[in-house]
Amino acid sequence: MCLVSLEAIQSISAAEDEARQAKLRATQKAREAVEEAEKNGKEAVASAALRAETEIAQLKRAADQKAAEQAVELESKTANRQATLRARAESRLDKAAQLIVERIVSV
After folding, report:
1. pLDDT at 60
2. pLDDT reported for residue 59
3. Nearest-CA neighbor of 36 among 26, 44, 46?
4. Percent over 90 (pLDDT), the chain
5. How far is residue 90 CA from its own chain's centroid?
6. Please, is 46 exposed, middle or buried when counting C-beta atoms within 10 Å of its C-beta (0-12, 13-18, 19+)?
7. Distance CA 93, CA 80 (A)
8. Angle at CA 54, nearest 5°, toward 48 and 55?
């Protein structure tokens, strides 16, 4: 009976050792999985940040180009309006001068 008990104890002890080893392997595998997930997460965040920076730069260039185009258009419209106002003023200048001369002469 003592021999059977010793074999049972050795069997139980071996099973416990195997369970501890399996638990250690599982723990190590879990650590590696967490490390891999963190690494992949950091890479994904860095990649997203780079894409966002690139997109922002493209949007800024597009906005700058559009603003420059609008400035040129506004400058052109302003120059046209200025020319129109100048022509109108010049056409009235002769009339104004004539009125001044008439008033001076009639006095």
Report:
1. 97
2. 97
3. 44
4. 66
5. 53
6. exposed
7. 20
8. 90
pTM of full prediction above 0.70: no
Instruction: Please give the full DSSP string across the chain, using - where no structure is assigned.
Output: -HHHHHHHHHHHHHHHHHHHHHHHHHHHHHHHHHHHHHHHHHHHHHHHHHHHHHHHHHHHHHHHHHHHHHHHHHHHHHHHHHHHHHHHHHHHHHHHHHHHHHHHHH-
Burial 28-39, CB ≥16 within 10 A → b, else e: eeeeeeeeeeee
State the residue for tokens 């990649």.
47
Tokens of 66: 């559009």
Q: Which tokens hold the place of 81?
A: 């309006």
